[in-house]
Design goal:
Layout: E1 3-5, H1 6-12, E2 26-28, E3 30-31, E4 42-43, H2 57-62, E5 67-71, E6 83-86, H3 89-103, E7 107-112, H4 117-128, E8 134-136, H5 146-152, E9 160-164, H6 172-180, E10 184-187, H7 195-198, H8 201-208, E11 220-224, H9 228-234, E12 242-246, E13 256-261, E14 266-270, E15 273-279, H10 285-299, H11 308-311, E16 322-325, E17 331-335, H12 341-353, E18 359-365, H13 374-383, E19 392-396, H14 400-411, E20 416-419, H15 422-430, E21 437-442, H16 450-458
Parallel strand pairs: 3-4, 4-5, 5-6, 7-9, 7-10, 8-9, 10-11, 11-12, 17-21, 18-19, 18-21, 19-20
Antiparallel strand pairs: 1-2, 13-14, 14-15, 16-17
Length: 459
């Protein structure tokens, strides 16, 4: 984590008060939550919707913070304490992270995309650890606040940082990438997430390609080569960069030549190696995420032949194609972290093709932030189901009812249970599961369908 004196800090960000009495004080790490102060932290008070961190500055220093920032438009700064007055605390945090990144010798990989960012981040960090000391974005710290905090947590001797970059609108990825200055970037895909904000997949592609704006001169861009929205635009990019692609087609830099779907994950071969790779993650779409990670690792001089050592032992962030067991012996695929039409279709395809289960049940909830066509997207998901592949469909939420509506013609009403009450859904679902059952649970994060998984495991 960052460790500097207050004098050094004042050289990294603009400070508006006299620090001569405090400049030799050293801080270690930053905190924005006064309840999580560690001794020696720099406390950065932020103004939120429900609270103003400035109210906790004095208490934070009493708890052991070495110093704190103070936004100059907030009255009554406690000048008897080691505080640094700045124009804006959030801007100061972001600028501090930007300057700290410049002082580090770390190589940075930036990852964005509509789906698969976190999975690809985990895979990339795992592969890079074959050769380097690696740190990565933890949790969902991938926005204008989380990414600076991640950068400031980097150790001085960290060799590789894998940073996830999320967005809700135009300009956000550009801001993050210019802060992080990546040596390599990945765009996993272009899906339908953020249609509500951006209006079209073309606009989403433009927003994701902003990641190139911060890429170091001559750096690597790893793109989903089967996506025309990316490939058509990258050909017009004026900067100096190396482009490598992954995908299913043989036109890509890296593509699978053989795929075997297993109960616990996948086995696959690629055009770059004769080796059979093992990936203990469900879903053939995750092979594509692995290919992106492999291209990055190979760019940093890790041979393909070594990669199975880390791929075969991979553990992903929870609720992403996580296979767990219910109390009746049923198998549950917990993919409740997020959902879009693209990822929903991929998960349904996975369940449809998995062998060894007498009964297959889908529990599907609302896909959020899809814009004016959201109802039609849900209807299409239901209509895409195949009666011979799905035994029962449970839906949750108001938009989930449109999945049920779309499925009526292909499954028949007797196979469909639509709910807007989660407890009622759980009670009915429990009547239909046993040790022969496979259950898929998937929806957007706001629907909290992991509660269904927990209930099946413990209730």
């Amino acid at each position: 984590m960052i460790q500097r004196t207050l004098k050094q800090l004042s050289d990294m960000i603009k400070v508006e008060n006299d620090l001569s009495a405090w400049e030799s004080i050293q801080f270690a790490g930053v905190a924005i939550d006064s309840r999580k102060i560690s001794k020696g932290n720099l406390f950065i008070p932020l103004k939120g919707e429900h609270a103003d961190g400035h109210k906790f500055v004095e208490d934070s220093i009493k708890k052991g913070a070495a110093a704190a920032l103070w936004q100059k438009d907030v009255p009554n700064p406690p000048l008897h304490l080691p505080i640094l007055i700045v124009e804006d605390c959030l801007t100061a945090l972001q600028e501090l992270a930007k300057q700290y990144r410049k002082q580090l010798s770390v190589k940075v990989v930036g990852i964005t995309g509509s789906n698969g960012k976190t999975t690809t981040k985990d895979m990339t960090a795992n592969l890079l650890s074959l050769k380097f000391k690696v740190q990565k974005t933890e949790g969902n710290f991938n926005n204008h606040l989380g990414l600076p905090l991640t950068v400031l947590r980097l150790e001085e001797d960290t060799e590789m940082a894998v940073l996830e970059m999320g967005m809700s609108g135009r300009g956000e990825i550009e801001f993050l990438t210019k802060l992080a200055c990546p040596d390599a970037v990945v765009i996993t895909n272009i899906g339908e997430s953020h249609l509500l904000d951006l209006g079209s997949r073309e606009a989403i592609a433009e927003a994701k390609l902003e990641i190139l704006e911060g890429l170091k001169d001559g750096g690597l861009a790893v793109l989903h080569g089967d996506e025309p929205l990316l490939m058509n635009r990258i050909s017009r990019f004026q900067g100096n960069l190396q482009v490598q692609t992954f995908g299913r087609s043989e036109a890509n830099t890296l593509f699978p030549t053989e795929i075997h779907q297993l109960q616990y994950g996948n086995q696959f071969k690629t055009n770059a190696s004769k080796q059979m790779f093992e990936l203990p993650v469900l879903g053939t779409h995750n092979i594509l995420n692995a290919l992106a990670a492999m291209l990055v690792a190979n760019y940093f001089s890790i041979p393909f032949e070594r990669m199975n050592e880390k791929l075969s032992t991979l553990k992903l962030t929870n609720m992403r194609m996580e296979l767990v067991k219910g109390k009746k012996g049923e198998k549950i695929i917990n993919d409740a972290y997020n959902a879009s039409p693209t990822s929903m279709m991929a998960a349904i395809e996975l369940v449809s093709n998995l062998q060894g289960h007498k009964k297959k049940i889908l529990v599907l909830g609302d896909m959020l932030e899809l814009g004016p066509e959201e109802k039609q997207y849900h209807i299409q998901i239901g209509a895409s189901l195949k009666a011979e592949k799905v035994d029962l469909l449970f839906t949750f939420g108001q938009l989930g009812e449109y999945i049920a509506k779309g499925a009526e013609q292909v499954l028949g009403k007797e196979k469909i249970h639509a709910f807007t009450n989660k407890a009622e859904l759980i009670n009915e679902l429990e009547k239909h599961v046993d040790e022969t059952t496979l259950v898929l649970v998937k929806a957007s994060r706001g629907m909290k369908l992991e509660e269904v998984v927990t209930a099946l495991q413990t209730k």
